[in-house]
Amino acid sequence: MPHGTVDNPLIFVAIAADGAITILCHRAEMGQGVRTSLPMVVADEMEADWGRVTVKQAWAEEARFGNQDTDGSRSVRHFFMPMRRVGAAARAMLVSAAASQWNVPESEVHAKNHELIHTPTGKKLGFGDVAQKAAQLEVPSGDALKLKSADAFRYIGKGQTHIADGMDIVTGRAQYGQDVRLEGMLYAVVARPPVFGGKLVKVDDAAALKIPGVVKVVTLAGSPPPAMFNPLGGVAVIATNTWAAIAGRKALKIEWEGGPHASYDSAEYRKQLEASVRKPTEKAVRNDGDAMAALGSAAKRIQAEYYVPHLAQAPMETPVATVRIVDGKCEAWASVQAPQATHDMLVKWLELPPENVKVNQTLLGGGFGRKSKPDFVVEAGLLSKAMDGKPVKVTWTREDDIQHSYYHTVSVEHLEAGLDAQGKVTAWLHRTAAPSIGSTFADTKLQSAGELGMGAANVPFAIPNVRVENPEAEAHTRIGWFRSVSNIPRAFAIQSFVAEMAAELDKDHRDFLLDLIGPARRINPADLSDSWNHDESPEKYPVDTGRLRNVIEVVTREAGWGKSGAKGQAMGLAAHYSFVTYVATVVHVEVSDNGELSIPRVDVAVDCGPQVNPERIRSQIEGATVMGVSLATMGEISFKNGAAVQSNFHDYRITSMMSAPREIHVHLVAASDYDAPLGGVGEPGTPPVSAALCNAIFAATGKRIRSLPIGNQMQQKS
To answer: Which residues form the Aldehyde oxidase/xanthine dehydrogenase a/b hammerhead domain (predicted)?
Structure first.
């Protein structure tokens, strides 16, 4: 991570004279609970009373706070130990200050529930009584700190700490990006090229300028590829309110040039990807044994292809940012996942010194990877500059969000397996074709090591002959991070294929999957041709098939696997390793005679290592499950003539209350060793859902679904 981690209590903690504590959170809060979990860790190690703690958001300054890029399910994973050291150092400094004031040895003083206690006499001082003196002391080094033992934790692992922002959120006092209001603020929306790489030919703004409230129409220059985090360009309408700006934009008469991607048709592109994965490539990204020879001599050969379309993140709060420039100094308020990248993009586009740009982080009404790209903040900065520094808020409508996103990649996954006469899998071939996120930053047609390490190259099956190939795929739109990224198509394809093999052999799916995984073992990711390994140490984070086996055994036991259901009812299973966490999901479906699908229950087993905030873990897994159902059943962005076809929630639908699982049961695998490495939580719950759901549909109806979304396929004849 750029700028790594910081564990200085003077950076993160302030204690007032009355004992009130303020703890800064430097990561973005978008519903995952990080603004509770990280300060809670500090408070626990400090022996602070959580009821006397106020959490505030840090601004963008990675050199001060450490890495602030909130993605990859790594905020708690990477900052759990640094935040423990922050709290432990603060506690040690308070103890030292109290001992000095009493003129007693530090060994005779301990902290408990917001107080310093002299153990022999029982004398007490509040944290506020010695805070000023403590702040003047040298911060103890990390190796000199004594961290709490797990049995002394008051908040960590308990799952009983209330959300720091909970009351403000439910009472409407919390500030999201959309809530920012500044004196003299103007409001803007932007008409962007409908095709990625398209350009403005001409605009007639006469009618727009007649709309009451419209102040100015500004042309924004685009930028040449690669897209990076740059704005798309277009025509902005600035007004005294957002509604007037939207009305003004509708009145614009614009002619666009389509550019090099004007012919992009996702249906035709799918055929290109399918053709690519049906041909061998010379270079393999993983090549154990001789898979092609083993396939050729196999007693039985099974193959299948799976398709996942483009997806849009569609957070409930669309991209929004406010920027003002006063005396050459820029200040931004934005709901972004990457505040430092936002700062750096404003510096670049506004040509200002870095010290003259400040980015204030607001709450995010969802992110899912979209708000890691601050193109919308740059738009606000450019428009503020065009308005002589007046504050300008840029709001993306839902149509803007759906039609100009950094989309999750489209992919085709081709799988083949060779089996011997006893039904043992002896060969595995996987060809994966998809435009890479790397295309957003450079000219590339191949997936990155990170993308290939999301289930393709690092498949942990005990198969002697494995070959994984990655045919080229050109990107025709902006490709970006999405919740769980390439794990979505990989888990769908691989776990569906395993179920297909089990059915072909008339074997129980769970037993077949466990047999395919093989005995418990700890595998160096490099031995699976995974050089990425989530950017983690392969020694600390090997691929542990014992943990993968265990979550499968836990979830099937808790779900009642093997019980026979009524007609049209069945269970489906899938398991996946992502973001160094192990997840297995069982989906129970009911399918009516006319093909209507309902989901009465989902069980999810999760092994993420030590659990810092179990209540938030459960919430994230529940949300990930609902999102997984939504993507599997309805999620699709398609392209015609270079432009996204879908535009709002009427045609890019998301799961409603009526179609969501009626019950979600999360089974957390306990881990008591808090010195052990943590896994991620925000993303790993999503990947197994689509395969488990489609496997359940097959078990209930005999209909195999290999192309997402499921949509109306249930009503079609096999």
So the answer is: 171-260
Which residues neighbour 309 within 8 Å (Cβ) at sequence distance 6 or greater?
A: 266, 410, 635, 636, 637, 638, 708, 709
Burial class of 327 by CB neighbour count within 10 A (0 to 12, 13 to 18, 19+) = exposed
Q: Is there a domain that residue 253 lies in?
A: yes
The answer on 651 and 530 residing in a single domain is: yes
- The average confidence (pLDDT) of the chain is 97
Residue 253: Cβ within 10 Å count = 11
pLDDT at 266: 98
Q: In a 3-state reduction of DSSP, which class is residue 268? A: helix
Q: What is the DSSP string of 558-617?
A: HHTTT---STTEEEEEEEEEETTEEEEEEEEEEE-TT--EEEEEEEEEEE-SS-S-HHHH
Please enumerate in sequence order all residues whose Cβ is within 8 A of that of 227, keeping only pairs 6 or more positions apart, or say none.
196, 406, 440, 478
Question: Residue 23's closest CA among 11, 34, 7?
Answer: 11
pLDDT tens digits, residue range 467-522? 999 999 999 999 999 999 999 999 999 999 999 999 999 999 999 999 999 999 99
Answer yes or no: do 120 and 224 share one domain.
Answer: no
The first and second tokens of residue 572, run together, are 């489906």
> φ, ψ for residue 228 (rounded to 5)?
50, -135
Does one domain contain both 108 and 133?
Answer: yes
| 278 shares a domain with 256 | no
In the predicted model, is pLDDT for residue 434 greater than 70?
yes
472 and 538 part of one domain = yes
Number of separate domains in the chain: 3
CB burial of 444-460 (b: ≥16 within 10 Å; e: otherwise) equals: bebbbebbbbbbbbbbb
CA distance 682 to 31: 10
Report the DSSP pairing between strands 425-433 and 214-220: unpaired
Note the Cα 431 to chain centre separation in Å: 25
In which domain, by residue range, is 249 found? 186-260+334-395
572 DSSP β-pair partners: 587
Query: Which domain CATH number covers 42?
Result: 3.30.365.10
Answer whether 396's CB lies under 8 Å from 433's CB. no
Tokens representing 196 are 């990625």
* Residue 547 and residue 656 share a domain: yes
pLDDT tens digit string along 138-147? 999 999 999 9
Q: Helical H runs in 316-448?
A: 339-350, 375-386, 398-403
